[in-house]
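[Meeting: bench + compute handoff]

Bench side (C.D.) handed over the final construct sequence. Compute side (W.E.) agreed to return the predicted structure before the next meeting so the bench team could plan truncations. Sequence as handed over:
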Amino acid sequence: VQTFDYVVKNATQSVTFLTRTYDNIYAHTKPVCDRLKEAKLLDVKQVSVQGMTFIQYKLQQNDGKIEYAISFSAGVKQNENKFNIQSIWLTRNYAIQDTMYNFQVWAVEPAMAKNMVGSILTKLNTVLPVNQIVDSFGIPTTYITDVTRTQNQLIMNVRNNTNATNGAISLTVRGNENMTTTSPISVPVTLIPNGVTPVTIDVKDSYESDISLIVDNTVKDMVYMNDGNWNYSVSKTSIVPNKFTISNDGIMPAADEFRLFRNVTIDVNVPDYVSIYKMMKAGGLSRSLSEFNQFKFKAAATNTGKLTIVIQKASITNWSEQYTYTMPISGDLKDYAVNLKDFRSTSTNDTLKADDIVTVTFSFIGSGNNNHIVASLADVKFGKATNTPVPVTTVSTNMTVYPNPAIDKFKVKFMSDKDAKLSLKLVEMGTGRVVFMKEVNAVIGENIVPVEVTTYINSDGHYVVLLGNEAINYTPFKMAIRK
């Protein structure tokens, strides 16, 4: 695989993506992959470059930008001293060569895309003569312009440039990420002649679908779509879980919720933590969930002290500034609910605006024992209610101060099982003198308090951080300040 980007003033103007395959064609062409990422296929036509015919696509991306793409393959057969050029709509119709160099070329202008193809042909011709295999299939007269997955529904539009009305959508469905078998679904569709036909198909809580458009018993188009996958992450790539299972529960979403379909269990030996995450859309696209204000799920975990949930926004590029919520977790499967306003970011005091969510990550933190973590998640969803409390077990009275040593600024991190007013003090070791004090408004879950002591401390020293009120006192934390 090789790829080349042409960038001007931080804006991509064109891309060439090249794969080499043996006895097969690279199937994920530009229109297939981009429709997965919610691009819209606006037009398909044939263009001529150096006397050869190529299929060009006009695509409108998810962000509204227009691109022009040309896909083709330069194949070589054994004992033949030439490149066989093919540019065919469906990859299933390519004549398979022993070695195939598969090109995807796209640009912001059609002339630029054609120019790039011409440059490739010229360079190929310096290696071997180029010869085109005649395309007997031509451009598609009927095709799927766009497809999206929203909860259990596949929603697509079919552009029909003929008078045909007899159509069908054929699906090969994989139920979840673990399954190796697939199930077929066929949905008859009456096409609008010379028009666009909207089609909606219920795929339940399945993971992915290969989609074929059939007109008069002939396959005219193929696309691919998935729900956004579940996966895991650990601190060392060499660690492999003892078990990572994903299962379907068949529960369909209610009108006031957005479900993160399927349930997950992981069994893993780790030194520190394991994270389980769910993508909101295929292709890493973000999803707007701003109509919801609560996050609900069932969870259980052994050999962990706490669970940190990270809601990743596309508009925040620094992972450490993403919105998080940390809570106690037990080994019993329980129902949890967290109001989205209780998620916190280290970069702002603003509440979470769930308008561009990319992933939701559950990080189970090891308890410091053998760290054989077994964690399960089920019935995960965004909802609209705000009155369900989070079950709370005993919260640790430990706190963390970082960085340590500090210079002028540091942060104090701690857990609280309720909203409370606390007093934070910085006490000089040796003298017992309180050099700094502030009031802290703690909230349920994880709290991070910034402290600045620039005007209070002028020399190196050792200090103790105290935090508490008349009802609770956190374990004192020793730290150093270097000036």
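W.E. noted at the follow-up: Residues 110-125 form the longest helix (16 residues). C.D. will use this when planning the next construct.
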